[in-house]
Structure formats: C-alpha cells, structure tokens
Amino acid sequence: MPLLTPEGWALLGSLPPYDEAEALRLAESLRAAGHDPALVAAALTQQRLRSRAAAKFGDFAQQMLFTPDGLEQATRLAVSAHHAARYAAAGAHRVADLGCGIGGDAMALAGLGLDVLAVERDEATAALATVNLMPFEGARVLRADALSVDLKAEGVDAVFADPARRAGGRRLTDPEQWSPRLSEVLALRERIDAVGVKVAPGIDHALLPSHAHVQWVSVDGEVVEAGIWYGPLAPEGPGRSALVLTTGADGEPRARRLADPACTDPSAAPEQLEPVTGTAEIGEFLLEPDGAAIRAGLVAELARRTTSRPVGTRIAYLTGDTPPQASLAPFLHCWRVREVLPLNLKALRARVRGRGIGRLEIHKRGLPVSPDALRASLRLKGDGAETWVVTRVGVRDEHDRGAVLVVEPVGAER
Fold this sequence. Notes:
Layout: H1 6-14, H2 23-32, H3 37-57, H4 68-73, H5 77-89, E1 94-98, H6 104-111, E2 115-120, H7 123-132, E3 139-143, E4 158-161, E5 166-167, E6 170-171, H8 182-186, E7 194-199, E8 213-219, E9 222-229, E10 239-247, E11 253-259, E12 285-289, H9 291-295, H10 299-306, E13 309-310, E14 318-320, E15 332-342, H11 345-355, E16 357-365, H12 371-377, E17 384-391, E18 403-409
Parallel strand pairs: 1-2, 1-4, 2-3, 4-7, 8-10, 16-17
Antiparallel strand pairs: 5-6, 7-9, 8-9, 10-11, 12-14, 12-15, 13-14, 15-18, 17-18
C-alpha cells in the first residue's frame, strides 16, 4: 500500500479534512507539486473513507486507515466498547480477535487493558489493522487464517470472531457461506469457554445455538448487528435480548437493555400474540418497537408491558389506549392515532387535495406499498403536513387492502 511509506504517511497527514467539492482541485494541485498520481489518489481516497468513518469511530477515524469493505463491516466504536466490557467483566486476559478486519473491536479490547491477538488473513487489511493498533502495546496483529491459530500456544483464554459476510460485492445471508463458516466458529467452544461471535442482525432464529445468549443491537434507531455470547461472556444466561444505544444531547451514548425473562432458547420461534380483529379496535396510541427489539423477538413482551396488541398478524406495530411508561420509551416510538382511513387511492387523493397537504411522512409494514410511489401518486400540494402509517390490520387476509392510520408523535400536540 503506497500510504504505508514515509512519503505516503506524510502526504496523508498534510491533507485537510475531506471536502467533496474541493477534492478534484486538491488532487490537481498535489500532482502539480510533484506527488505521484497514484499516491495522491490513495491519500484522497483514505481521507474520504476517514470522513465516512467518523460516524463509527468519531475522532479516532482521523488517525486510522480503512478499506471500503473493512469500514462497511467494522463495528461502531459505541458497540465495540460494549463487546470489550463483556470480556473485561468475564475476567479475560488474552483475547483472540479472529477476522479482525481493520481492527475496530481489537482497539476497544486493547483500550480496556486486555492483551489482544488480532488475526486477519488478508495481507492489505492486516497491514491497516497493524497501523490502527499501533497505539496499544498489548495488541499484536497476526496474518493468518482465523481457524489455523493455535489458541492454546498463544495463551488465549477468550475469542471474539467476526466472520466475513460479503463476497464479490454482495452480502451473504447463509451463515455457512461466511468466512469462516458460523458452525466452524461455534465449534471453538470445544476449546475455549468464552466465545463471542458477531453475526448479521437478520439471521434466522432457527440457526442460532440454543444454549447461548444472543443480543441484537441498534444505534440511534438503526439495527447494526447481533452478537452470540457463550459462557462467562453471557452472564444473562441463555436467551435473547436487545441493546438500544441512543446518542444523548451531550453526544454521549445511552444504553438500555430489554429481555424476555421467559425465553431461555434463542433458537425458538418468537411468540406471536393475537392481533386486533379490525380497525374498530385500533386504540388511541400506535407503538412501533425499536428494530433491535423486533429482531430479538420481543414484540410480545413489549405488548404485555404496555397492555397493547399487535395491529395485525406478524405486524410489529402495537396499539392500545395508554402510552408506554418512561422506562420503555427507548424501545418504542409512540404516536397518537387521529384517524383510521381505508387504503383507497381516490379517497386519499381527495384528502390531500382538500387539506392542502404538501408534506407527507409515510411509514408502512405488511403491505406491498412503496411510500415513495404512494406519495408521488397523491399529487401533494400545499402547506399542510401529515404523518401516515400504512399497514395491514387484523388477521392475515390475502384480500385485505390495509388501512391508513393518520398519526402524530406523542407530545406534538399543544
């Protein structure tokens, strides 16, 4: 990599923060100053990646090196800090980060004073991880196949694995196509008690090990991953939970956890409650669980805690007549239902025209409706604004055309 030379490192360090509008002009001036065109291109690409990486790594991004795929799969710093805390609380001393990528999780582990053996097969990525881990004396990068390492000889007492889930530019949904395969990683439990595995959040529950704890994580409303935790890394015991991280006004993350105490087998199908029978039973409030809670199969648990019911079969909207308690607010988006309308394009166009609606926010679940296409077909015009939730209501019916719930966020009304 050209940047891993004294000249390349110096050039990268001299660049201003990335600005798309100035990138071409800056590249031309650097080439005119005598810098090698390939080196200039590599440095500007790196600055662009650093700019994107700030969302995951904050200020650390400006001292790191990235590849596009490495940044795509890297764990956000706020999440990797929670990973590392599990290992520290479990009493781990030397952690093998198998498939470390650019080293994001290894940085968090080493930042808590743990010794880290960061293993990466790809030569270029391993070189970047070496640079990113330079500030940490207890971290070492080993270029090797993740499963070829003699963990006992290396003095490893805990493992974190992040299998590669992309190939040829596409995501792999089958865990047995990941590299290494999920079954191979889980087999490490035969040698090491403390094993953690980062997996895709959309993983089928039936593919999960029954005796582990699996936690889904969202950051500011976006579901980013699931983690399989074994042994001392899972003080919660077998089951499923959601970790919801939100950024406070001070810029610091807030962490809240939710679990179903009745679930002790993460591979079991999530509980499905009976929905309302029709639009007449839609309550005063509509609740949308956080994506991590949905993925963790906690919709039924949230329904019980809020005295609400699903609006439809296998639909992750809940409805009831009381708002959620403050302790559940991080796991639920709450709207007040103002009207319930049929999903009829002609009637909806008349509503938009009659009320002068020029801005329309549309949410949807359970119906083959594109919010963008629906919005375009309504011919919005005017100063009015509304929020609609388009969803299927009641028991699943192939002839059900759905309903439109006109809603307002709780607290919006004066």
